[in-house]
Structure formats: C-alpha cells, structure tokens
Specification:
This protein is mainly alpha-helical. It is built from three helices and two strands; from the N terminus they run αββαα.
Length: 125
Amino acid sequence: MSAHLDTSELEAFATRLGVAAGQVRRAVQPTLSKAGLNVKDAYAAQARSSRHFRPLAHTVSYDILPDGMSVEIGPDRARGGGAGLAGFFYGWPRGGGGSGDLDGPLEQEAAVLGRFAAEAIEGLL
C-alpha cells in the first residue's frame, strides 16, 4: 500500500519563507528607525520640560546599529551632556535628578513598533 501526498503548496510556501527571511531587515528597518526617533523625541521633550535639564535636551540622539535590527538611544557624546542625562534619568548619588522616565516612552512605542513590524513582515509573505 502506498500513498502520494501533494506537497507542492508546502514547498512553495517554504520557498516564500526563505525569500522573506532575507528581506526582513530591510522591511522592518524603517519601522525601527521611526520608533527610535519617537523615543528620542520623548526623552528630549522630558528634558526640555525640566528647568535644570533643559540644556541637555539637544544631546539625545538615536542610531540604528550595524546589525540593522537594533536602535541605540541616548546621549550623543559629541554634543556633551552624557553624565547630565544620566543624572536626569537615574539621579545623583547625593540626591536630586532622577525625574526622567526611561520606561514610559519605550513601553508606549513597543506596541506601535510591534504592530507595524508585523505588518511589514506580513507584506513579505
């Protein structure tokens, strides 16, 4: 007794997945860039709203890392203010600072990023 299974649709789908896997980075990168910009802008807005940390708002920047799938957000050392922003978000050893919210903008953007990244990936299939 033998049976013949038609796996042509499965094989075609596997081929599409293989092609899509190579295109994910390029499809998702604009979404990551926009998410990084939104979080950077939120951090800068927080600093601008502080009387003491307002001058450091312009030092917040973001970069897409070489892997193309990660975003780094933080102080741009060339613009100065790295230690000052650390004080804004984490506080100082002897008190003061620590009024910045690191998690809020990230959590808010995570849902949006997930939705748009999923749509971009879905478009590849």
